[in-house]
Amino acid sequence: MKHVSLPATGVTPVTLIAFGRRRKGLFASILGALHHARKVQASRVIKRYQHLIDRAEQRRAELEGHGNVGH
């Protein structure tokens, strides 16, 4: 894969929050960055396929409304 260009919409700035005087170690910082990146990616995927999620919920509601007769 060469270079991938992602849209800049919805990008949130990184905010540093200090909890006391103790600093995170390198591993904890990297793990935190990976966790944040994964959450952003998951949010992007959910937003991309939201129409399919909505359709599945509507279908389930219709089936529950009919009492699943014959299924």
Identify the notable features of this structure and list them briefly.
2 helices, mainly alpha, elongated, 71 residues
Structural class: mainly alpha
Low-confidence stretches: none
Count the E strands. 0
**Alpha carbon gap, first and last residue:** 46 Å
Radius of gyration: 21 Å
The number of helical elements comes to 2
Share of helix among residues?
Answer: 40-55%
Could you describe the largest sheet, including whether it forms a barrel? none
Describe the structure in your own words.
The chain has 71 residues and is mainly alpha-helical. It has a domain at 26-65. 55% of the residues lie in helices and 0% in strands. The chain has two helices and no strands. It has helices at residues 26-48, 50-65. The chain is elongated and about 60 Å long. The model has no long low-confidence stretch (mean pLDDT 80).
Topology readout:
Elements: H1 26-48, H2 50-65
Task: Briefly summarize what is shown.
The chain is mostly helical. It has helices spanning 26-48, 50-65. The protein has two helices and no strands.
